[in-house]
Every structure is written in C-alpha cells, then in structure tokens.
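2024-03-11 09:14:02 INFO receiving multi-entity request
2024-03-11 09:14:02 INFO entity count = two
2024-03-11 09:14:03 INFO echoing inputs for audit
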Amino acid sequence: MFEATYPKEKRRIGEIAIVGPKGSAKQPFIQSICQDVIITDQDVIFGSLKVSSDLFLFLYGIGTNGRAYDFAWDLVAQKILGYIVLFDWYDEQSFKRSKQLLDFLTFRFDAPVIIAADVRDRPYPVNEKIYRPNISLTAKDRLTFCRSDDTKSTKRVVVSLLDTLIDQLP
Amino acid sequence: MITVKEPILKTSQKLDILRHLFSDQPIASLLQGLEQIEIAAFQNFIWDKTIEFGIRAQGKNFSQENILTKIRRSLNINTVPEQQVAQQIEIIFEIAKEYVHHATHPEMTNSTTSKVNSI
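2024-03-11 09:21:47 INFO inference complete, emitting structure
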C-alpha cells in the first residue's frame, strides 16, 4: 500500500535510528509520531513519517542488549541521518545498558546523537528551562527529556536531531 | 593510517554527571579513580554546564563573577594541593545544583533567595 501510494522514484527519504535497551519505549515513541508503523518484534520496529508529498522520514527502532556489533552498525551508519538513544531516566538498569552503545555511537560516527531520557508518565526531573530544547554534551551530541507516548514530546526530540544536523553544516 | 583519539570524557560519563546533578546526588563517587587529565576534563565540563544552567535559570541577571566569588569564599585554604581541584569541582557542582533547583522550584526561592542571589 505504501509502495503503491508513494512509488520509490518519487520519494526522498531521511533515515533515523531509534536505539535503546530491550524493553525501552521505542515502540510507543515511533507509534506516537509515525503514520505507518510495522512491528516485526518488540525490538525491530519501522515507522514512516510523511513530511511533504515527496519527503519522508523513516524511523528504525533497534533494540540492543548493550553490546555493540561493529559490522552491523557500520552498515547502518552509511544511510543514517542521526541516532536517538532512548532510555528510561528513572530506571538505573536502563541507563547502564545504554552506556556502552551510547559511547560507541558518539565516538565512532559523525552523525549527531540525541539522548532522549524518557520519563514516561512521571514528572520531569528538572524544569524545561534547563533542558529545552536540549543540553549539549559535545558539539554534535545532545541530551533532552521526553514522554515516549506523547506526540508533541517525541516530535521535539526528532526536531532536536534535525536542528543538530543543520548546526553541523559548514 | 589515521588514528582517532578517544575523548577524555566519554559521553556516558558526562551523562552520569548530569544524572547526579538532576537527582541531587553528590559528585564525589564519580571522581574516584580518575586520572588527572580526566579530572581536568571533568572540571571543564561541570564549569561549562554551570554557566549554561546559570544563564538558563537567571537570564540577564546571571553573572559569572558571582560564581568566582562563591568559589573563593568556599575554598578551604588548608586543603592539600592534590585535593584542591576535587574541592573546586564539588563547589562548582553545588552551584550548578542551586541553579537547577532555582529553575525547577521557583516557589521555594523565597526562603533561599538570598542564597541564590549571592551566587
């Protein structure tokens, strides 16, 4: 249906990887923002977001167990605009499982990384004055907070990534 | 062959610093076992974030000089030189916490206004 409505030759695509430990809220994040979502299993999710009649953002939800497989990420990196690393802010284990992959992505690739700390239905730990639109960790890597099932919130995360990408332009 | 040097502070370490800051935890445990060069990078990062959060919390009223004044007042001159950097980091970290707390709980600043304004 997607292919018939939007044939390949007419589409321009930007691709974003949403990564996080198994069990993190990649599925609600992608479902909150994308019009078409395909769920292969809990940790392989695809969503497409139509920006205009011929421009789409593809979001790939990729679950990890904390280990980084260089060859797979090298293949993925060739097409990716940027990465959103999603973890549960209030879950220490979720943060610990994200660390190794976070350091791997931020060091190995030039693409920007937005670390989206998900608070779900709990309070934000700090006022939005402190974290909006984001907090820079390096020239290309930023931290922000979000509610993974809230469309406005997840859109802000994607916009942060695109802004960071544009900021990197010479 | 091109060799790319790893950053002195990993992204996860910076994120850990901010997690401690936003959840009001002490910083001392993160400093343990660090090399001198890592401690210097640690200090630079905390300093940069303190300025950033000060500006975000206080806007036009923010003054970097106030931070320096507080550091000078809080430093213990009897501290051995090896521990002075760690002490400075802890002082700057507490200042950052005050900015974050001031922005997050403005209704509580009546009781702490003089403390915040003295930053």
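2024-03-11 09:21:48 INFO post-check: The radius of gyration of chain B is 16 Å.
2024-03-11 09:21:48 INFO post-check: The interface with chain A takes residues 4, 6-7, 10-12, 14-15, 18-19, 22-23, 49, 52-53, 56-57, 100, 103-104 of chain B (CB under 8 Å).
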